[in-house]
Amino acid sequence: MFQPYSINTLARDRCWRTLSAGKTWEPLLEASILHAGFESRRFRAIVDTGAEVSSFEASMGAQLGLRIKEGPMESLQVASSAGGAAVYFHRVRLNIAGHALEIWGGFCYDLAVPALLGRHGFFENFKVTFDPNRKGMQVDRVSAE
Question: Which among 21, 69, 81, 84 could bridge 75 via Cys, Cβ 3.0 to 4.6 Å?
Answer without folding.
Answer: 84
